[in-house]
Write a structure and sequence with these properties.
By secondary structure, the protein is an alpha+beta fold. It contains 16 helices and six strands. A hairpin with a 3-residue loop joins strand 5 and strand 6. The radius of gyration is 21 Å and the shape is globular.
């Protein structure tokens, strides 16, 4: 049974949206493609009443921060994907799907989180090694926020810049904050709950009360996670801290040492045992395919049967994170 995402929609909702190319292939070949995409964003803003607050266009994916004035995120994003694909394919003599499955979205609690997310997404070209200075990257809304450069008429900057209202020069404040944000990125993700809600525990409880009045849907693991109040992202972060390891390093490294592999597999097994996440979703935490997750779980189970010390380590970890 294939899982599907839980799309929570209401007027005024804030989102971080991400979509990748099929098989991680490029969705932008040249400058004309990127400009085409920006033009379509303008159409979406007008047609679907979507406030696009920030964006960055990479090679094989894009990030958007937006607010929906109507409860229509899915319709707007599906229209974006279909429209861009239908205009991109003839230009490059190709056919078929351009994007990899469904778009990913994160529900954002308020404008303050939106500001922090804007720093994060604007730093993408820097993290990817595409530029040495953020200002050198043309295909993002960073120049508009950091230097007051001319921006598309549909770019809605008020929500984010209003968070810097007590500064003499909001553009300078934004620029300095973004440039120094690398040390703060980890703190931002500490408030990512259930893998798709960025906000406080109170905000999650509000969402649960309003949008999950009954039992969770069998095909939507996110609903099961919220219903049971089991947050895999938080548990993973806490457990990794107890083991003294960095999950992001597992994701970025093609090869890991034997001790790192044991820690990774133990973390993976703990999340798998929660029973709220699909193997595909678990794989996203670690940079693994769903089949690799299944294989690692099977191997870890076999190791547990043979190794008493490993069983003791697992039991100790679970007792410390209270599961």
């Amino acid at each position: 049974m294939m899982s599907r995402a839980w799309r929570i929609a209401y007027p005024g909702a804030l989102y971080h949206v991400l979509s990748r190319g099929n098989d991680r292939q490029n969705i932008f070949i040249g400058a004309d493609d990127r400009q085409l995409f920006l033009n379509i964003l303008g159409e979406i803003s007008d047609r679907f009443e979507v406030d696009i607050c920030a964006y960055v266009l990479m090679g094989n994916h894009y990030h958007l921060l937006l607010r929906t004035r109507r409860a229509n995120l899915s319709k707007a994003m599906q229209w974006l994907g279909v429209t861009y694909t239908n205009r991109f394919n003839p230009r490059h003599g190709r056919s078929g799907h351009l994007f990899q499955g469904r778009f990913k979205s994160m529900l954002v609690q308020n404008d303050a989180y939106l500001l922090q997310l804007s720093y994060y997404i604007h730093r993408n070209p820097l993290r990817a090694g595409l530029v040495k200075r953020l200002a050198a990257y043309r295909w993002s809304s960073y120049p508009a926020y950091a230097y007051g450069k001319r921006s598309p008429p549909w770019l809605h900057m008020k929500l984010i810049l209003s968070q810097l209202k007590n500064t003499a020069d909001p553009y300078q404040a934004y620029r300095e904050n973004a440039q120094n944000y690398s040390k703060e990125e980890g703190k931002l993700w500490e408030d990512l709950r259930h893998g798709f809600i960025l906000g406080s525990e109170r905000f999650v409880k509000t969402i649960k009360a309003r949008y999950l009045p009954g039992p969770p849907h069998a095909e939507i693991p996110q609903q099961k996670s919220v219903a049971q109040d089991v947050d895999p992202a938080f548990i993973l972060h806490t457990a990794a801290g107890r083991l003294g390891c960095n999950v992001e390093r597992f994701k970025q490294s093609g090869k890991v040492s034997a001790s790192d592999a044991e820690n990774r597999d133990m973390l993976l097994y703990v999340i798998w045992q929660l029973g709220t996440q699909t193997n595909q979703r678990i794989g996203e935490f670690f940079g693994l395919t769903h089949s690799a997750v299944s294989r690692r779980v099977s191997l870890f189970k076999k190791a547990l049967k043979k190794d008493a010390a490993l069983r003791h380590r697992l039991d100790l970890l679970k007792s410390k994170i209270k599961i």
